[in-house]
Design brief:
The protein is of the alpha/beta class and about 270 residues long. The protein is built from 13 helices and seven strands. Strands 3-4-2-5-1-6-7 form a seven-stranded mixed sheet, sandwiched between helices. The structure holds adenosine-5'-triphosphate and magnesium ion.
Length: about 270
């Protein structure tokens, strides 16, 4: 169960998590995409729907609120099946109300005293005991709130996204601090698989400067994936053309071929 995260917005979390999910299906694996971002971008990329609002009443939010549901209920009601080997639990804007639900309702009728950070994990554990996936890929929002904490508490592995900017560079220490807090309090087995540098424009000196700064840092350097994801118009246009009948798909996902291989070696 692999979480893609960083609280800096626009760092290719959704693009990379969706392409990785797709690449794993191409290798014959059965994959579940879980969208924990109210923007619903992973849903747009994977769910093969006209609009994310089709999922307004049976999205990840309802799946997490339905605390009495069995694994079978979750599979039948909230797991969407755009392809045999690619399933999705979608998100849309109302997932933004998840924290409000936790603090106005959930904590007051919660006889098991379940930690609010474990709501997603509890739901996914039930689902996975009913239906088996080779990989669960979780996309997160650009914030360190309850959605991201739930994702980190549910995952077995986390990939930290880095796009070369000062804002993203400054976000890294707090993201790793959050990983450590989640490991301490909720999910001791969580493994930080690595830092994936993305949207890299090799011609820009500032991109190179940030990469060099990471390589020179004793904590970050060993975590860096050898693969870097370059800025490519074709990769950006996956949000327009999707994965089916996309004439430029091969070019768009080229770097992710190498990334997926490296990821599988590291797991
Ligand atoms: N390798 C790439 N080359 C070119 N454009 C890219 C690449 N990766 C992502 N993009 C584009 O950059 C933008 C941000 O990517 P994306 O939405 O995946 O980031 P994100 O981290 O999920 O953002 P948010 O924090 O808002 O959820 C999008 O418009 C996407 O199409
Ligand atoms: Mg996103």
């Amino acid at each position: 169960m692999i979480v893609f995260g960083i609280q800096k917005g626009g760092s290719s979390k959704s693009t990379s998590s969706a392409i990785t999910a797709y690449m794993l299906t191409q290798q014959g694996y059965k994959v579940l995409g879980v969208d924990m971002d109210p923007q619903g971008n992973m849903t747009s990329l994977l769910a093969n729907a006209e609009s994310i609002y089709e999922f307004r009443s049976n999205s990840i939010l309802e799946a997490m609120k339905d605390t009495q549901a069995s694994g079978e209920d979750i599979y039948n009601s909230y797991v969407h099946k755009p392809a045999d080997n690619l399933h999705v639990i979608p998100a849309e804007d109302l997932l933004a109300t998840f924290p409000r639900w936790i603090y106005t309702e959930f904590i007051h009728r919660n006889p098991q005293r379940l930690n609010p950070g474990l709501i997603l994990k509890t739901m996914l554990d039930k689902l996975l005991s009913y239906y088996n996936y080779d990989f669960v890929i979780i996309d997160t929002p650009p914030a360190l709130g309850d959605q991201t904490v739930n994702a980190l508490a549910a995952g077995t592995h986390v990939i930290t996204m880095f796009e070369p900017s000062k804002f993203c560079f400054d976000a890294l220490p707090t993201f790793f601090e959050t990983i450590n807090i989640v490991k301490r309090d909720l999910n001791p087995g969580l493994v930080s698989v690595g830092i994936l540098c993305t949207i890299i424009d090799a011609r820009r000196t500032d991109s190179r400067m940030f990469m060099d700064a990471l390589k020179g840092n004793e904590f970050f350097a060993p975590l860096l994936f050898d693969t870097i994801i370059h800025r490519k118009a074709t990769t950006g246009r996956i949000s327009l053309y999707g994965f089916e009948q996309n004439a430029e798909l091969e070019n768009a996902i080229e770097d992710y071929n190498f990334f997926t291989k490296e990821l599988l070696k590291r797991l």
